TrEMBL record:
Sample GO molecular function, one term: acyltransferase activity, transferring groups other than amino-acyl groups
Domain N-acetyltransferase: 19-150
Domain of life: Bacteria
Organism: Sinorhizobium fredii (strain HH103)
Secreted keyword on record: no
Protein name: GCN5-related N-acetyltransferase
Amino acid sequence: MATLPDLPVYEIQRDGYWLSTDRSRLDLDLIHRYLVEGSYWARGLDRALFERALEGSLPVAIYAPDGRLATFARVVTDLAVFAYLRDVFTLPAHRGRGLAAWLSEAIRQHPELATVTNWMLATRDAHAVYEKAGFRRVPHPEYYMSVPKPDEIT
């Protein structure tokens, strides 16, 4: 069985944009900067911790026709039955084109993720985006538990 860093590169194209899991194409400086400065969920994320998290994930990026990053996400997965889509963002110049929804749907077609039946994500404000890709609200949220982050404990 392949490990996450050793998976074959998966690429597809739509409307001049390319979706790719090629780690060598990632602009880690740009991705980390956006997560730290532009997201609500990763503010203050240490660079070394981000890189460690990325090593244990399948990165997915969409590149604009000019080759520059447009959208990024990572999939935390066991490559068998479970996958958690997280850190999804689209850079401002590329918003409104349905790229995050396309990424959220297209990554589920990756050959190494074909057996995954339990896909999850968390969002505070983009439910409509992910509903376009087939995600739905958890049917029984009372079944799910989490350990709160230190800043969430009241």
